[in-house]
Amino acid sequence: MTYSRDEAAVKQEKYFFSFHKDVLDENGKLLASHKRSLFNNTIGHYLNGALEEARLSLSKYLGLTDNGKKKYSYAKFQDVVSFADIEIDCGDKALGQFILTLIASLPRNYSAIDDLSIYAKEKLQILG
């Protein structure tokens, strides 16, 4: 029997390793309470079915104004997209797709953020 490494699982473990041990369960996964609070409670709003609240929370977390212009953090965008990837590959696929849909819907602002928006659009096309 040959061993084949599951790259999605490795990516997930590396991501969870970046969290403090107090927010991880005995299996090294995010505690549900912490997961709900991520990104200015975006995940909690999504899980409660409040999709517009989730969208607004994510926009606020990312530092976007109503017109999608600057005052954002590229690092936060990267973190959100990484989280969405992990969810799609190893967790709640619908949650990951919801987050990527929000990122993909951002208007162009001619910055590095556009690359993440394009990535989100391409990933969503692949997922169908």
What does this entry show, briefly?
The protein is an all-alpha fold and 128 residues long. Helices cover 65% and strands 0% of the residues. The chain has one domain (7-127).
Q: What can you see in these coordinates?
A:
The chain has 128 residues and is mainly alpha-helical. The chain contains 6 helices and no strands. The chain is globular, with a radius of gyration of 15 Å.
Helix content: 55-70%
Order of helices and strands: HHHHHH
Structural class: mainly alpha
Distance N terminus to C terminus?
33 Å
Shape: globular
Radius of gyration: 15 Å
What average pLDDT do the residues reach?
85
Fraction of residues in β-strands: under 5%
Largest sheet: none
Individual helix count: 6
Multimeric organization: single chain
User: Number of domains in the coordinates?
Assistant: 1
Number of distinct beta strands: 0
Uncertain stretches of 5 or more adjacent residues: none
